[in-house]
Design a protein that fits this description.
This protein has seven helices and three strands. With 184 residues, it is mostly helical. A three-stranded antiparallel beta sheet has the order 1-3-2. Helix 1 packs across helix 3 and helix 5 packs across helix 6.
């Protein structure tokens, strides 16, 4: 599913998806505080760090503001005041396009986390089985129209999500001694 254009729009796409992390009323009408938006942008960027190579990206609040200014100039978002932004009425189609670029990845990470959360507390699963079960779970959610993109069922992205959760300490790997066909 890797779209070759994602790297061109990655900054704006992460801002667009972060806007949708607020309720619809805030994103479209009352506005989203820029500082709160910056926090969500940081969270999504951190989660998706294994999916994209960020050559020039919003590492500082100033970079973030440059991206917002670019989106404001192109009428994707609008400023209500110095600290608040909403989706511009003329920018809806472009915002939807930006969301479609990375939303499948966000859904995959959500599905993976939801599956892992169902293992809590102290349930274990073989790593080799886990990827298949997460993929099956994602496909079930897609068929039930809970997630919108079939690309969210990608085992490659699921493996990246598990790796991210492992490196963040959300899950741990343990070796168990078992006897299977006479082999420890």
């Amino acid at each position: 599913y890797r779209n070759n254009l994602v790297h061109i729009f990655i900054s704006e796409a992460i801002v667009a998806c972060s806007l949708f992390g607020f309720d619809q009323n805030n994103a479209w009408q009352t506005g989203v505080d820029k500082q709160e938006l910056w926090e969500k942008v940081g969270f999504i960027s951190h989660i998706l760090r294994n999916e994209f190579v960020f050559s020039k990206f919003m590492k500082t609040y100033e970079d973030f503001n440059e991206t917002l200014e670019f989106m404001i100039q192109n009428k994707h978002i609008q400023e209500l005041d110095a600290n608040t932004v909403t989706i511009h009425p003329e920018g809806e189609n472009h915002i939807n396009y930006l969301n479609s670029l990375i939303w499948p990845f966000i859904d995959t990470y959500w599905v993976t986390f939801t599956f892992i959360f169902s293992l809590v507390p102290s349930k274990v699963i073989r790593e080799s089985e886990m990827y298949q079960k997460i993929q099956w779970f994602a496909e079930s959610l897609y068929e039930d129209q809970i997630i919108s993109f079939y690309e969210s069922c990608s085992q490659e992205v699921i493996k990246n999500a598990v790796g991210t959760f492992f490196s963040d300490g959300i899950i741990i790997k343990q070796k168990f001694e078992t006897i299977n066909d006479g082999v420890k």
